[in-house]
Amino acid sequence: MRRMRIRQGGRPWGGWVLSLLLILAVLTALFPLTPVRPSLSASATWVDLQGPRGGPAQAIALSPAFATDALVFAGGGRDYVKGAWAGQGIFRSSDGGATWSARLGPGNGAVFDIAFSPNWSQDGHAVAGLWQGVWATTDGGASWQEVSSFGNGGLGMVASIDISPGFAVDHTYLASGSYGAIFRSTDAGASWTSVGPTSTVYRVVFHPGTGAIALAAAADGLWRSTDGGAGWTQVITGTAIADVTFRPLHDTAYASAPTQVLRSTDGGATWHPFGSGLSASH
Question: Taking the chain, what is the end-to-end CA distance rounded to the nearest angstrom?
């Protein structure tokens, strides 16, 4: 699996519920389980890891090599005043979350998303989307440097970001913001071009096997690119799509609509309802 990440990109609670349903649907498809009736004494328990405090954790990302490096990155922030988020930067744990190092990146950084290079084990490269722009690491998260702040009139908060599977060759990032638009860089973040939909974009993600195909979950539907994010076509209309993800190393993708999970088996070109009995209360 290239990465696992959880984040809140400023979406409504209904989108949150559907995103959780989306995760459950994907896990069910990948790992079917035999139903077991639980007893009251067998309820799950949660352990407080005594991690960083001071606000909601809006981005949690596990290293693609988590089984061997046990790396976890996390961050978050608060909307203190209208149009101004602040957090405590990017936190890093090298023991599966048992302990956390001092915060990294911008000291007041509000973190919304983290994406890993497809060659993470070799290059230690990851990017983080923050209220303050895009930050990157090339040393496994030991240090982070600003890539772009986008300046006034740019993307604003970076709610979602992804790295092309062919990054070593095409040097492409895609980033989106809850205030609208998708931005694309083909020079590792040195410059950016506004592309795609202008509505609120909750998630942008590359196909795990090719940098040519990308999907974007937006307030006005689902968008698809077949040229590395340069051009976009709307493939789902008439409903908001709160989240979208690809099955690891596969053409199958899943998207969460307000009342159902949708599935595509052709790289996002066509979509059909998936599963039954899934609903979200707003």
Answer: 32
Q: Is residue 128 within a helix (H) or strand (E), and if so which, with residue range?
A: strand 126-130
d(CA 134, CA 90): 12
152-171 confidence digits (pLDDT tens) = 445 567 889 999 999 999 99
Contacts of 251 (CB under 8 A, 6+ apart): 207, 209, 264, 265, 266, 267
Lateral strand order in the sheet of 111-116:
111-116, 126-130, 133-137, 145-148
Q: How far is CA 56 from CA 7, 45, 77, 185, 221, in A?
A: 11, 20, 6, 29, 28
pLDDT 10s digits, 249-280: 889 999 999 889 999 999 999 999 987 655 55
Of the pLDDT bands very low, low, confident and very high (cuts 50, 70, 90), residue 222 is very high
| Cα–Cα dist 23/254, whole Å | 9
Who's near 127: CB < 8 A, 6+ residues apart?
114, 115, 134, 135, 136, 137, 147, 161, 163, 173, 189
